[in-house]
Specification:
The protein is an alpha/beta fold. Helix content is 29%, strand content 28%. The longest helix is centred in the middle third of the chain and has 16 residues.
Length: 478
Amino acid sequence: MKRWTRSALLALMLAAAACSPREQMLVLLSTNDMHARIQYFPQLAAAVAACRDTVPGAVLVDAGDRWTGNAYVDLAPTPGMPVIALMNRLGYDAATLGNHEFDRGQAFLGRMIDSMDFEVVCANVVSDTCTFPSLPPVTVIERDGVKIGLVGAVTNYEGPGHPAGNASSFEGLRFPDPQQRAMEVGAELRPKVDVLVLLSHMGDDRDAELLGRCGLFDVVIGGHTHVECDTVINGTLMTQTGKNLSNVGVTTIRLRGGKVVGSDFRIVPLAGYEADPEYRAEVERYYADPELNRPVGEFARPADGWGVANWMARAVADRAGAEVGFYHVGGVRIDSIPAGGMSTARVYDLEPFGTEIAVMRMTPADMRRMILTKYNDTENRKEAHRIDLISTTPYEILVDVRDSAFDVRFPQLREGRGYRVALNDYVFRNYRDLNGSDGRITGEKVAGVLLGELDGKSPIEPDNRPRQRIVRAGANPR
């Protein structure tokens, strides 16, 4: 047997180390559900620059819902363009679609995608229209010899069969099952890349379902449910950064010999970064709109989430001469209003959709059916098992031990009587089991009604009292 000297053994160990695969590090920076909050883009730019100083090859991606929620973006000469211009300048690499990308219709979205300097991928949208060509399901980015495959998927659960929004926005489009399509496309791409990433706008609950079915992806960059998420399911890192550009996600992936050997995720608050001066100047130019900055009225005291929703429900009911008003929580886009002056822009932040008032006659039985169906919705789970419809009339939802609603009590309404009810056109067009008579959309914009209230009734006295509640009533007696 040959005996090794210490020096010979050391030389052999060094040679073996030199031949072993070196460890590489990949950094993914991510945003989701920014909803046009470009006021925080200067801090995002500073955070991205700081990362790129350390890791020049960092990949920057977005998981959907880039606009709707900021009047300075949504009412710009080209709506939505301010956020796209800022993303282009910052050098985003890829993104997927969110449901709010469709808010202004397919033709508008098609034109906006043409303006994006980054790849937009979505595996589960199929277009039969010339106004919106089908998107690529995947893209591959290479950094320092590492191939990163990016698959896109958008929710189809709320329509049902398409993302949340008015059905007219999706005519001519099909949205196959996003989980199935992500797995199919991902399986095809997996052998061709070193790292496989899913850009998902399905929501954390649906992402978790997908990961329970497969361990195909290395990372899921998620969105849609506005949560902060950092967990591992079936060996895959599942992430989400919240909403409104308050955070940036930092995913670090370690590879050795082209194989992923580890990963971690951090949610980094953007409030800790000094604003980049060039981006700040650009944002200030977008905000220099005298019409949007014009004060229109004031609130006498702060309104919390209930107070804001109660105000909207009451305003549409009063304007329509209705005895009962309903407004859905998803249409109330700001969580509170402070005491003091309120600008035109803030009203459009609260109601950015161009929503119109609808009216119809409904009995308490009709209202009960609408509320129960919404509470027990098994498809659009994001909006189920909660108080979704704020109303001017008090009501209680009775639920059993399985959290299934079985009755609604209206203490101030008389059973069998028909009431004139004001809704918004989103509820009127899209909610299932909406029954009644003489229904129509009035054509009057909710935002205009709120502006009129502020102009004519200031200071507004908000009512922050909850009028709706959920009652745990034990077993369903039916």
